[in-house]
Write a structure and sequence with these properties.
By secondary structure, the protein is of the alpha+beta class. The chain has eight helices and twelve strands. It has helices at 8-15, 19-27, 46-60, 65-74, 77-114, 121-140, 163-177, 239-252; strands at 6-7, 34-35, 42-44, 144-148, 151-160, 186-191, 202-209, 221-225, 228-234, 256-258, 265-270, 281-291. The strands form two sheets. Strands 4, 5, 6, 7, 8, 9, 10, 11 and 12 form a nine-stranded antiparallel sheet that branches. Strands 1-3-2 form a three-stranded antiparallel sheet. β2 and β3 form a beta hairpin.
């Protein structure tokens, strides 16, 4: 019997999903991939493809991964109905919140229309609104500012439609063979050419800290990360959205601004999941910053 087998590159192009998104969903246990022995690319059979279709559809409805898991595990229409009903209920609660905001805006507008002859009211209102809204920004601003030391690293850059695994795999193999894996800090990040649209090659670099005296073999290269101040945010499953969140928070910061002279980084933190089960790494997003 013929099997339908699709590579990660083909799937990325067909469904408009990034390879990073597919790897994350797999790490969350929503499906399992194989490996093409000749190219090393991840491949997906029919059951995995169906799980990916379900996940993509429900994520577009903003349904969380934890609620999608029982749907893909049981392939049940009942579970599908349940999660959609839960999403509708959540939207209804959200709509009530929007209605309250609308009422507040109408009240503010009415107040402005009544008091528009007072020259000082605008300044008073701005001061009050800044107190309210900037306090909300502070509550949402979960990033921390940390200082990284200067670090000697070995790095590997790959340009491909799915470069992350190809950049990371050989470097990890070398670290393991050199008994450096347990002590190395791991950093990754997009490199030129930067990601543009689905299916087009882009660059990704992976680097690992190494002690002085260790010889870096080919094809890896050596450099010194300068360290300094970084804004750090723990990434959730939506890595791109987490980066947008971090940069939005920085745009409201009164103390710090981005420093374009240094590389932004994604630190890969090993977790306690066993090999080949669950997500092996959590990400800390690190944006270089300087004091305003």
């Amino acid at each position: 019997m013929n099997r339908t087998v699709v590579t990660i590159q083909q799937l990325s192009e067909q469904m408009g999903l990034t390879s990073r998104t597919l790897r994350h969903w797999e790490a969350e246990g929503l499906f399992h991939s194989g490996r093409d022995s000749s190219s090393g690319w991840r491949t997906y059979e029919e059951d995995a493809l169906q799980c990916i279709r379900i996940t993509a559809l429900l994520r577009r409805m903003d349904i969380p991964i934890k609620e999608i898991q029982p749907v893909v595990e049981r392939k049940s229409v009942f579970e599908l109905i349940r999660v959609i009903e839960n999403r509708i209920a959540a939207l209804q609660v959200h709509q009530k919140g929007l209605k309250r905001v609308e009422q507040q805006l109408l009240q503010t507008l009415e107040y402005l229309n009544i008091t528009n002859k007072r020259t000082s009211v605008l300044e008073e209102l701005l001061n009050e609104m800044e107190n309210v809204f900037m306090s909300n920004v502070t509550e949402r601003s979960t990033f921390k500012v940390i200082t990284l030391p200067a670090m000697r690293v070995a790095y590997h850059i790959v340009v491909d439609v799915s470069p992350e695994d190809k950049a990371m795999g050989p470097l990890m193999d070398w670290l393991k063979s050199a008994t450096l894996l347990g002590t190395a800090r791991l950093f990754g990040g997009n490199m030129k050419p930067m990601p543009s649209s689905t299916g087009k090659p882009y660059g990704y670099g992976m680097c690992a800290t190494i002690p002085e005296g260790v010889v870096v073999p080919e094809p890896f290269q050596e450099m010194l990360l300068p360290g300094g101040l970084y804004a750090k945010l723990d990434s959730d499953e939506d890595i791109g959205g987490s980066w947008n969140n971090l940069m939005n928070q920085l745009s409201h910061s009164k103390k710090y601004t981005s420093d374009p002279t240094r590389l932004c980084l994604e630190e890969h933190i090993r977790n306690d999941h066993p090999e080949n089960s669950g997500n092996l790494y959590d990400l800390n997003l690190l944006e270089p910053v300087k004091a305003k």
